[in-house]
Amino acid sequence: MNNFSYTRAGDVATAVREVSGDDAAVFIAGGTNLIDLMKENVTRPGRLIDITRLPLARIEELPDGGLRLGALVTNADTAYNEQVERRYPLLARAILAGASAQLRNMATNGGNLMQRTRCLYFYDRATPCNKRDPGAGCSAADGFNRMHAILGASEQCIAVHPSDMCVALAALDAQVQVTGPRGDRTIPFGEFHRLPGDTPQIDNTLRSDEIITAIDLPPRGFADHYAYLKVRDRTSYAFALVSVAAALDMKGDTVVEARLALGGVAHKPWRDMHAEEMLKGLSVTKDHFEAVASEIVREARGFADNSFKIVLAQRAIVRALQHAAAMGRQS
Amino acid sequence: MTTTYIGEATSRVDGRAKVTGRAKYAGEPDIANLVYGYVVGATVARGTITAIDATEALSVPGVLTVLTHENSPLPVSRRSYIDEAGSPGETFIPFRDNRVRFSQQPIALVLADTFERARYAASLVRVEYDQETHLTDLEAALTDAYDPPWRVLLPPIPGPRGNAEKALAASAARVDVKYGAPAEHHNPMEPYASTAVWEENGTLTVYDKTQGVKNVQGFLCSQFDYDDDELRVLSPYVGGGFGSGLRPQYQVFLAVLAARELKRPVKVTLTRQQMFGLCYRPFAIQRVALGASSDGTLNALIHDAVQNTSRYEHYCESTVHWSPLLYKCDNVTVSFKLAQLDLTAPADMRAPGAAWGLFALESAMDELAVELEIDPLELRLRNHAETDQVRNVPFSSKALRDCYTQGAERVGWSRRKPEPRAVRKDGALVGLGMASGVWESPQLMASASAVLTLDGALTVSSATADIGTGTYTIMAQIAAETLGLPLNQVTFKLGDSSLPRAPVEGGSFTAATVGPAVQAACLKVRDQLFGLAQRIPNSPLAGVTSDEVVADDGHLRSRKDPSRAVSFADAMQNSMVNEVEGTATTGPDPKQQGYGTYTHSAVFAEVHVDEALGTIRVPRMVSALAAGRVLNPKTARSQVLGGLVWGIGMALEEESVIDHKFGRFMNHSLGEYHVPVNADVHDLEVIFVDERDDVVNPLGAKGLGEIGLVGVAAAIANAVYNATGKRIRDLPITLDKLL
Amino acid sequence: MRTARGTGSAQPTSALAPTNAITLHLNGAPVKLDVAPWTTLLDALREYLHLTGTKKGCDHGQCGACTVLMDGKRVLSCLTLAIMKDGATVTTIEGLSTGETLHPVQQAFIDQDAFQCGYCTPGQICSAVGMMAEGHAHTADDIRELMSGNICRCGAYSNIVAAIQQAMRPSEGSVKP
Fold first, then answer.
1. Whether B325 and B261 share a structural domain
2. Nearest CB to B661; choose among A143, A238, A312
3. DSSP code for B735
4. Which chain A residues contact residue C20 at CB under 8 A?
5. Same domain, yes or no, for B580 and B672?
6. Are residues B175 and B316 in the same domain?
7. Min CA distance, B702 vs chain C (Å)?
8. Chain C residue closest in CA terms to A193
9. Distance of CA A203 to CAs A157, A195, A206, B696, C96, Å?
10. Which residues of chain A neighbour B613 with C-beta distances below 8 Å?
11. DSSP B264
């Protein structure tokens, strides 16, 4: 861990100003990812700006009926919030599937979006990594890549985004509220995280002088038919091999609208709008679900250790959709 | 009338210290003027260090020095030392030369006045290497497998009997299968740490994390040329060892090196990442061939194993020793070879050898049972070995049949369907599998001393260890019962090299080894008390013979007439004696040589497999064990539970992954190396069957630290086969192998 | 770009960042401490305050051994910068017992043999106390899942669950969920 200086920001404007003026400065809130990365010398900021006292720690209803999740609300407080549990249970389930209770008590909503990949090579300075040192090479592509991407990868990087919460946020069409010296901005969730392309060192579209202030959930939470399915190598406290956030709006046995997002398969939560469209108007049968699942993985490409994820993802999608459809029905 | 503690489910006497956080581990003594050492590890697997530039590191405020091979000449030692758990070859000593032998090899030690400064400075040390091509893939090294010089502490590889190849060819039913196992790291919760305290008079007190203080003392004295009374090793609490602490680990060497250099106390703690640069259970590739008649009688058994070792040590295990022993078979051939890789040397890891050996054997037996269409449990019973065919001696005891019967009944083996995919529950495929387990139960030599003071406090000591095994408690129980004192008046001291000699705590032999010494030392105290008691004028015990006397409730009492008694205090006071001391050294009775002394088990696993996703859950396991006399059912059960949890990890999760491009274990964290978590563990049941053994050691007790793990991976793998029809022969059984 | 920050080479080693004075309400008493920014709460407790009951198992938030209670909630002290917690109320394992009277969870751990080597134990106990205060564990499976952030390599999980169940039983009296 490098030698860094520490300051606190008392308000958003100050936070933005501090970070804009200083290339070596980063925000720290929960610290559960940042401190981990700093201890490994993966990231070595010269200055930490403590934003934990900013007034961004509320969950409140929005005029349009949606729900605003303050960026500094902890993951645990978000998952157990009465409104989130009742109206957006998909999000609550996803959050509770991630990390551990202690980490959920510390990690913030904003931090969950910002967390970086857990690729072993990214984390180990002894092995080249394009995300850590652009141009150094990707050690995972021909290395141990069990945890890596099957969709949207590039020659430069095959890492995945490790979050569970983000997968649900993607499925729910959340919006990320940010602010910077140029004012406020709303980033649709699907546009927040990037695919690696030729610039794997850039994880998201947040500008270096901006701060996340809130995550807005739209009015529709799909609370009647949802499932968050996380498949991992042990029962708990492990990252997803594949995870699926599935949500359905149904009329009888027919899908009115479907939301499907995958985790553990790409550099960002993976949504395939075309596949979701496919489900519209179809009945909730296994065949239909399998067709959608095939569609979603049609361009999937596996590596030496993770090709199984293609089949796993398909089956997980089907299973999640089945669970979502079956909710509240006589079995 | 007698005070009974042996066999009681006594709560741990060190419990309060542990649950309050007062128990201090190796990196925790509060020492003034402490210097922190942080290790820099090699980032190549093989080569030569051409340059180490510590300039930037040394410019960090608070950094005192950076030690490397360039500035750390070692004293010439005149003392010999034999590592109690060593292997033939050359022990790795840090900073001996400029060679890199494995990735993460310690190549520099940064010393600073705070942990953070040392850590930061370590990140600034620049190293250049002349890298050489490394080999870290056992499969690729197989062609160079060799017959290794053997490890002295292991019995020799069993020689052949009969003609296995011929009998195999003539068998009505045959299986001939290859099994693979990955490297595994011990990962005790406490990272390795040592605090070497340089005392004013030039002596050293070393707080170390170790399973054997005498072994570490011997090592350090030989390396640094000290006499035994100049260097003391203390290890009262150890945060898990599982074999990794049998031998001195490199941080203790570095701490002492630095303490001598700086003439200040130095603490070196390894990071969790660095723990993956320490020893491990080796990779293993095994072949098991079994031939049987159609009624299931085994006619032929061939078991070959190749495991990896380092380039500098020949690390062998007893992997193929158990197959010729466990089942009756007249035609047996086994072999064990090593292949050298550019990795650090492996070391004993909970049930070394048997863990891999019985995974292969018990999986093969299951495959044979399928081939024969005989129930797997029935197949074991049909081939039960009544005698030790390896040494041609009887077993001192072997209640394995009872283990099979009781375990099978508890798990409901009769409800098992032999054909796979026949049972479902809530959509999951259900399977039941079983395996036998066996582990040795030796007694070694050890010494103990017992001191009884006038106030009735008894202190018993031996330089053994408690790594979570419950040594503190069972030794106190033995002492309390032997001298008839309440448990709360008895203290057992361990983990101090100045105490009477005991071997490392390992091999499941501590109860059998130190227990008798404790008992004997206490009996010497009792005998002295008896002598003192008889000196009392008109002593109530006058005329009583020593075999008539029992110690009970702080008194010496006549068995025939309990009213004739003398209190310890009276006996001592009459002769104006303030304390009575006894020291004893015990060792195995030569009659043990005429027997095979082993612990046995039968383990049963129920698994539920999600067919679509491949995920495996183990809702239930039953382990029935024949372990002789159980000294403390509470701690004994915990030992076995620990072994069962390890078995879940071994079967389903654990794997140290090497990227051969770098020759480096890559999943070097507890986030990526998966040990079981709480949610992985459900219903575990432990049954101790009755087994009496008057040969194995004076207590009749057998060790339990390792038997709990043996066979579990096979039981789970066999259950997975029963559930799915898929036979997985490479551990761990991760879901992708079932998709 | 934010993600490009902090990935450059280390700064020249001139002066180290200055320490800040913080106050922790630690186990019921205010404690003043001068900490450098890079000192975690875990190292502040173990190395500077010599409260070694809280353990370092991995230093990366992957094992739970460093769990303490911060303002009543269970958190990982290894991923907490002490300098950020000025004014916080912290309870460590040392603060759970009252004099020689053990907290019901501590006693239950002894009764149920919920530890072996003892190294994960302080973290398990603090985590259990925190979990019970959270009020979301209603079944044995809930306990298993919600305690999965505390790794026990000795494999004492069965007894850890039994100990927590013992402590949660109403008959135990003083432990409120």
1. no
2. A143
3. G
4. 6
5. no
6. yes
7. 19
8. C3
9. 11, 8, 9, 64, 43
10. 231, 312, 315-316, 319
11. S
Q: Which chains have 3 or more CB–CB distances shorter than 8 Å to chain B?
A: A, C
- Per-residue model confidence as pLDDT tens digits over B301-341: 999 999 999 999 999 999 999 999 999 999 999 999 999 99
CB B568 within 8 A of CB B456: yes
**Percent above pLDDT 90 for chain A:** 98
Q: Which chains touch A (3 or more CB pairs under 8 A)?
A: B, C
User: Which tokens in the block code for residue B167?
Assistant: 């009998």
**pLDDT (tens digit, 9 = 90+) per residue, A169-214?**
999 999 999 999 999 999 999 999 999 999 999 999 999 999 999 9
Best residue in B8, B11, B14, B19 for a mutation probing chain C (most C CBs within 10 Å)? B19
| pLDDT value of residue C11 | 46
Give me the number of domains chain B comprises: 3
Q: Chain A residues with CB inside 8 Å of B617's CB?
A: 235
Pick from C3, C16, C64: CB nearest A100? C64
Q: Is the confidence metric ipTM above 0.90 for this complex? A: yes
User: Nearest-CA neighbor of C161 among B15, B641, B648?
Assistant: B641
pTM, 2 dp = 0.97
Looking at the domain assignment, is residue B357 inside a domain? yes
B159 and B231 part of one domain? no
The predicted structure's pLDDT at residue A330 = 53
In the A/C pair of chains, how many CB contacts fall below 8 A? 136
| Residue recorded with tokens 């490392």 | B504
The pair phi, psi for residue B321, each rounded to 5°, is -75, -25
Maximum Cα interatomic distance, chain C, rounded to a whole number of Å: 61
Task: Tell which residue, B259, B261, B278, has the closest CA to residue B206.
Answer: B259
Q: How many helices (H) and strands (E) does chain A have?
A: 13, 12
Tell me, yes or no, if B220 comes closer than 8 A to chain C by beta carbon: no
Would you state the pLDDT for residue B78? 80
- CA–CA–CA angle A138, A141, A144 (5° rounding): 110
Residues A79-129 have pLDDT tens digits of: 999 999 999 999 999 999 999 999 999 999 999 999 999 999 999 999 999
B736–chain A Cβ distance below 8 A for any pair: yes
Alpha-carbon span B700 to B515, nearest angstrom: 10
Tens digit of pLDDT for each residue in C36-55? 999 999 999 999 999 999 99
Is C84 domain-assigned?
yes
- Asked whether residue B649 falls in the same domain as residue B518, the answer is no
All structural domains of chain A, each given as residue ranges with its CATH number in brackets, are: 5-53 (3.30.43.10), 226-326 (3.30.390.50)
Spell out, as residue ranges, where chain B has pLDDT lower than 50. Answer: none
Closest Cβ opposite residue C38 in set A1, A105, A207: A1
The residues of B annotated as belonging to the active site are 706
Residues within 8 A of C (CB atoms), A 40-59 only: 40-46, 48, 50, 52
- Of C43, C65, C95, the residue at which a domain comes to its end is C95
Q: Is C2 on the interface with A (CB under 8 A)?
A: yes
Instruction: Say whether residue B726 is in contact with chain A using an 8 A CB cutoff.
Output: no
Angle between helix C104-111 and C157-168 (nearest 10): 140
Last residue of a domain, one of C44, C64, C95: C95
The tens digit of pLDDT for each residue in C87-102 reads 999 999 999 999 899 9
Distance CA A134, CA A200 (A): 8
Query: For a pLDDT cut of 70, what percent of chain C falls above it?
Result: 88
Cα separation values, A149 from A138, B87, B392, B575, C165, Å: 13, 43, 58, 82, 41
* Nearest residue in chain B measured CA to CA from A144: B659
Domain that includes residue B501, residue range: 15-21+443-587
Per-residue confidence (pLDDT) for residue C15, from 0 to 100: 85
For residue C4, name the pLDDT band (cuts at 50, 70, 90): very low
H/E segment holding residue B369: helix B354-372
